[in-house]
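Colleagues,

For the teaching module next term, I've prepared a clean inverse folding example: a structure given as C-alpha cells, and then the sequence designed for it. I'd like students to try predicting residues themselves before seeing the answer, so please don't circulate the second half yet.
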C-alpha cells in the first residue's frame, strides 16, 4: 500500500479530530485567542539517511522536518519531543553524534526539548513532535482566486544532490557542495512562516515535491493553480545536473522533496508587506487542478512505500 492509501484507511476509523480536521501540515487546537499547533514526523535510517550523512546531520534533520511543519502553519515553535528507536549494536559515537545534532538544532531554532523516550528497534528511528503557537492559523485550504503563488528560497537542490550521490555523478566540487547543503542540511523557514501568518491565505512546506504540494493546495482549497516554468527559482547547480542527465531543470525542481521551503498564496496587494526573499511563480484561479505554462501538471514527487522519488522521465 502507498502512503496515501494507508492514510485513507486510517481516516475511515479516526473520526474524533481537533478544531482543525486532519490533512494539514500539522494539527491545531484553539486555546483562548491562540492556536496550539502540533505535528509529528518520523525519520527512519533505511529510507531517510544516505550513507554520506553524518550523525550530527541526522539529528539536526529530525528536528528540522518537524519544525518546518509548524512553520508552514504560521506558528512559532515552542517545544520539541521525540522517541528514539535504537537497533542493537549501534555505535555509541554515532548515537552521541545524533544527540549533538538534535541539540544543535534546538539551539538554532531556539526551541526547548520537553520530553524524550528510547526503545529497542530493528532500525534507527527518530520520531519527533513539534509544538507551536499562533494567533492566525495558515492552512492548505485557504487559497483564493486572485492570490499570487509564491515560494521561499530555491528549489531542486535537494533532489539534484540526491541524484549526484545515488549515481555518483561527476560534478565540480563547488556544485557538489551547494547541492549537498540542501540535500544533507536543509533548514526550516521559521521566521518566514511567522511573517506569513499575518498576510498569506494558505501555505504548505515542500517535503514531498513542489508539484505534489501544489496539487494538495489546489485540491484542499478547491481552486486552480497556474504556474510558469520560467519563474521557478532553480539555481545553476541544478541546471548542471539536469544537463548531465539530459533532463529539464524544472522537472528536477518539481520533483524535489525535503526542500522544506514554503509554498504560499497571498493577495497581490500584500506581497509588498513580506520582508523576506521569495519568488512569485504563478496565480490562483477559479477551477480545479494544477497547470504549468497552460498544460496540466502531474503530481510528481516522493511517496513512502512506493519506492519512488521520480519526476516525469528521471532515472
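(Answer key — instructors only)
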Amino acid at each position: 500500500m502507498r502512503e496515501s492509501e494507508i492514510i485513507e484507511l486510517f481516516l475511515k476509523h479516526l473520526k474524533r479530530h481537533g478544531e482543525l480536521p486532519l490533512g494539514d501540515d500539522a494539527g491545531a487546537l484553539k486555546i483562548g485567542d491562540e492556536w496550539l499547533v502540533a505535528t509529528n514526523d518520523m525519520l527512519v535510517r533505511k529510507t531517510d539517511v544516505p550513507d554520506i550523512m553524518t550523525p550530527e546531520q541526522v539529528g539536526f534533520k529530525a528536528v528540522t522536518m518537524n519544525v518546518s511543519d509548524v512553520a508552514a502553519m504560521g506558528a512559532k515553535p515552542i517545544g520539541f519531543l521525540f522517541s528514539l528507536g535504537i537497533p542493537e549494536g549501534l555505535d555509541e559515537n554515532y548515537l552521541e553524534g545524533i544527540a549533538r545534532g538534535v541539540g544543535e538544532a534546538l539551539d538554532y531554532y531556539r526551541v526547548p526539548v520537553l520530553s524524550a523516550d528510547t526503545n529497542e528497534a530493528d532500525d534507527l528511528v527518530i520520531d519527533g513532535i513539534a509544538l507551536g503557537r499562533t494567533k492566525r492559523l495558515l492552512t492548505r485550504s485557504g487559497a483564493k482566486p486572485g492570490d499570487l503563488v509564491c515560494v521561499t528560497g530555491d528549489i531542486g537542490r535537494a533532489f539534484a544532490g540526491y541524484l549526484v550521490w545515488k549515481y555518483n555523478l561527476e560534478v565540480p566540487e563547488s556544485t557538489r557542495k551547494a547541492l549537498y547543503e540542501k540535500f544533507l542540511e536543509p533548514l526550516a523557514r521559521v521566521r518566514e512562516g511567522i511573517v506569513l501568518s499575518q498576510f498569506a491565505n494558505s501555505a504548505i512546506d515542500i517535503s514531498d515535491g513542489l508539484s505534489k504540494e501544489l496539487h494538495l493546495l489546489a485540491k484542499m482549497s478547491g481552486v486552480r493553480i497556474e504556474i510558469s516554468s520560467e519563474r521557478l527559482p532553480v539555481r545553476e547547480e541544478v541546471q548542471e545536473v539536469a544537463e548531465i542527465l539530459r533532463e529539464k531543470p524544472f522537472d528536477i525542481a518539481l520533483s524535489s522533496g525535503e526542500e522544506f521551503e514554503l509554498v504560499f498564496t497571498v493577495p497581490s496587494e500584500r506581497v509588498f508587506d513580506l520582508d523576506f526573499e521569495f519568488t512569485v511563480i504563478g496565480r490562483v484561479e477559479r477551477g480545479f487542478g494544477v497547470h504549468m505554462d497552460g498544460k496540466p501538471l502531474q503530481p510528481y514527487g516522493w511517496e513512502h512505500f512506493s519506492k519512488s522519488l521520480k519526476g516525469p522521465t528521471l532515472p
